[in-house]
Amino acid sequence: MTITGTHFNYYQICQRKLWLFGNGINMEHTSDLVYEGKLMHEDSYPQRSAKYEEVEIEGIKVDYYDARNRVIHEIKKSNKVEKAHEWQLKYYIYVFERNGIEGVTGILEYPLLRKTSEVVVSDIDREEMKHMEKEIGQILNSDECPEICVRKGICRSCSYYDFCFSGEEEE
Predict the structure, then answer these.
(1) Is residue 168 part of a domain?
(2) Spatial contact of 128 and 139, defined as CB atoms under 8 Å apart
(3) Which residue ranges of the chain lie beneath pLDDT 50?
(4) CATH of the domain at 128
(5) Dihedral sign computed on CA atoms, order 83, 60, 2, 121
(6) What's the domain count of the chain?
(7) pLDDT digit string (tens) for 99-142?
(8) Residue 17: CA atoms inside 13 Å, Cβ hemisphere, count?
(9) SS (H, E, C) 136-165
(10) 136, part of any domain
(11) What is the pTM of this model?
(12) DSSP of 29-84, one letter per residue?
């Protein structure tokens, strides 16, 4: 199985979500929040499509790559799971490096918050990503779906919320 940036993102948030997504159980198409994020992505920087390239390599798809300056732009709606966003972008950079594209950096952009942050990959990050790739592969190839983790505040906005918590009483 090809590991993608989405897998890296979900690995940071919830291993159950990672397993469900990786095993073809997709709920994103029913989520209003996911739809809002897609609209924001399309509408925030309309000039980018003409200026930057879309790059697809090793199963990852980077919508905005500034080849001249070697910068990957990743647009997100909210920074509630910024760590997951950072690792997703680091993984994109890592895949570019594996394919001979050196000196790539990234910029996380939160248009609604008017916030940006630069992302670079260190040698420690590269080693950690090798470890994460193995763990992600093990989770995805497991025959059993991981148990629900501690109920996090982020769960309520997850597209898998109803799937995970159906039949439970509200707190």
Answers:
(1) no
(2) no
(3) none
(4) 3.90.320.10
(5) negative
(6) 1
(7) 999 999 999 999 889 999 999 999 999 999 999 999 999 999 99
(8) 25
(9) HHHHHHCCCCCCCCCCCHHHHHCCCHHHHH
(10) yes
(11) 0.85
(12) GG-HHHHHHHHHHHHH-TTHHHHSEEEEETTEEEEEEETTTTEEEEE-S--TTHHH
